Amino acid sequence: MTDRHPELIFDGSPPWSPGYGVRVLAARGITADRAERALAELDEALAPVPINWLMDRLTLVWGVFMATRSSAGDEDAVTAWLGEYLRLLSDLPHDIAALAIDRAIQTARHGFIPSIGEIRGHAEPLLIERQRMRDRLRLTLEAMASTDDAR
């Protein structure tokens, strides 16, 4: 479901199209049934992170970064912080959220909790690519079905 190499396109066509997707799947011997299973797996892989896991993970992050700060025990601050982080990160898939939080912590060059923007900065490219693959596979399956219907 990736683009063709631009240097191999001589006819002005786009780097990717549903027809191209059909041809690639056929060349690799991938049936519509197998592609539909892959689509179901991609849809599942885009499901939002379990909220309890995210809450536990973010609570741990708060504890690690705030352990030595005077506001660490301020329940109102923790509640407000956690509420906003949950609200703005809960749409991410589980594996992407976990990786993005880890990368934001690993690359932080300051002594503060990584911001929502820093976490999403690591998550967004992965999320966009996964959504693009799902959308392209769906379009390819639709093209396969219309080709089959035409026969």
Describe this structure in a few short sentences.
The protein has about 150 residues and is mainly α. Helix content is about 70%, strand content about 0%. Helix 3 packs across helix 4.
Q: What structural class do the secondary elements suggest?
A: mainly alpha
Instruction: Report the major sheet.
Output: none
Number of domains: 2
SS element count, helices:
6
Unreliable stretches covering 5 or more consecutive residues: none
β-strand percent reads under 5%
In whole angstroms, the N-to-C terminal distance is 24 Å
State the helicity in percent bands: 55-70%
Q: Mean pLDDT, nearest integer?
A: 90
Rg measurement, Å = 21 Å
Strand tally, please?
A: 0
Form type: elongated
Order of helices and strands: HHHHHH
